Amino acid sequence: MVIHLHEDTIAAVSTPAGEGGIGIVRLSGCSAVKIAREIFILPKGKGLVKFKSRVLNYGYIIDGKKKIDEVLLAVMKAPGTYTREDIVEINCHGGITALRKVLELTLKHGARPAEPGEFTKRAFLKGRLDLSQAEAVLDIIEAKTEAGLRVSLNQLEGELSREVKFARKSIMEICADMEASMDFPEEDITPKTKKAWISGVKDSRRRLEKLLSTYHDGAILKEGIVAVICGRPNVGKSSLLNVLLRKNKAIVTHLPGTTRDPIEEMASIKGIPMRLVDTAGIRKEKGIIEKEGIKRSHLYLRRADLILCVLDGSERLKKEDREILGKIRPANTITVINKCDLKIRLNTKDITKMVKARDVVRVSCLTKIGIDKLEDRIYNKVWSGKVHTSNEAMVNNIRHKAAIEDAVRQLSQAEDSIEKELSLEFPASDLKESASSLGGITGEEYAEDLLNIIFSKFCIGK
Ligand code: GDP
Predict the structure, then answer these.
(1) Which ligand 1 atom is at minimum distance from the Cα of 364?
(2) What's the rounded Cα separation, in Å, for the pair 428 and 418?
(3) Contact at 8 Å (CB) between 152 and 222?
């Protein structure tokens, strides 16, 4: 991404590509209003001289004398806007041709095409959002479930930033105190001062460690888990996949840009985003030879976070069932005895010898009996029995996690150096580095290439 130092005006189509009821062209920058004046007229042909902020104006977009589209146009005056700049939004008819024409016209009148995420980048550079909040905007766009969305909304509201900023400020205060002492080396550091420093550093470290402990859950809520459905042919794997999908549609079924296997489906089971993989689907996939299918099924089983191993309750345990049960790790497996609407011929004792009894659930994909209970089991298995709330500050981003881990490591080093009464330069330098790691999360300290990496993940127009 190029850095634009001068205040130019950017424009983009902010709605998704394709047909739609309406489509929005968005402009941001100091010439946005001027451009709007040049290309917009009221129904009776007059231009609109004075735009009231945040009011929709009905009229036409014109190219010279030619009408391009019938639109609703809104001007939002700086600084109370997303980018803290003047913003103009033009609600056009949804077709791609009209949108493209309006966009081209804005460019002809002096705007330049926005780069991916540039509106949000401007919001960050103008101090409207900090960096972790800007990243939350992306997560909100990509949220797969309501629970994941809630975590990202919390982050956007600044929950994570508040925690991180608090720790950073405390660390910097101790550091400043140390540096002041360094200016008077002839004065001894009293045991009281030493104790206060250690306790201050410990406090911050504990706060950050608590935050780190939320990463496991935060990452699950954001990225989801891979759940693989396995079992011999005809036990009801595809039926189970369909029952779970029909009941638990995820907010997003497919993310642009992600390479998802065609046999993976996204579901939201009790708020947990789940990529469900049906191993029958792998073997049935067109053009795939049986041996390759089996190999891929095994690969999936190995990388599964959760395995749903399906057995046919209406039949006795077969050699093939035993083989499959023998291959999976019981710790991450729920054994699903299907077809419980039929007469049960399966000997449950045989199974509980191989897997934990409490992870066996009886269901019928035909009548849906037991499906609720299966979902409860899945939920408990993923969250290890604890009730999950996502209202607190949570870390769900690997970049933030790495930065907090660095900060914690540097704080431990500082603690150690103070304990050992090393020269104050050592702990002070560790504390500075720790504050700097934390500053990278909120963007109080950042490198331009980091901004480029973050904002290039956004779509154009956001
Ligand atoms: P897969 O090969 O393991 O994917 O199995 P399918 O989902 O294709 O199901 C195999 C057969 O079992 C189909 O005829 C389904 O209609 C049937 N089936 C699946 N679940 C149930 C169930 O709960 N009860 C009964 N009676 N039949 C089921």
Answers:
(1) 23
(2) 9
(3) yes
